[in-house]
Amino acid sequence: MKDIKVLGSGCPTCQKTADLIKAEAEKLGIPITLEKITDYAAIANYGIAATPGVVINGKVVHAGGLPKAADVDAWLTA
Questions:
Q1: Which H helix or E strand runs over 77?
Q2: Using the 8-state DSSP alphabet, how is residue 70 labeled?
């Protein structure tokens, strides 16, 4: 099980990022827990300056802009 957090204000890009991660995990058959973090203090604790940010199992893997599906697949299968 991968523990995934999407960090951001809840903007459309943040929502698309969360939806993309869910879809790719489902496609790959990888179980995940997905949490959206919108609190700016909590986001700052991860060192994220640009959102959306993606944290997988405690490690920041992405910050700023919509990630590519291929990148999400690589993160999920790592």
A1: helix 69-77
A2: H
**Closest by alpha carbon to 53, among 9, 3, 19?**
9
Q: Does residue 6 lie within any of the structural domains?
A: no
Each residue of 44-62: pLDDT tens digit?
Answer: 999 998 999 999 999 999 9
pLDDT tens digit sequence for 22-43: 999 999 999 999 999 999 999 9
Domain membership of residue 29 (yes or no) is: yes
pLDDT of residue 78: 93
Omega into 52 within 30° of 0, i.e. cis?
yes
Q: Which helix (H) or strand (E) holds 55?
A: strand 53-56
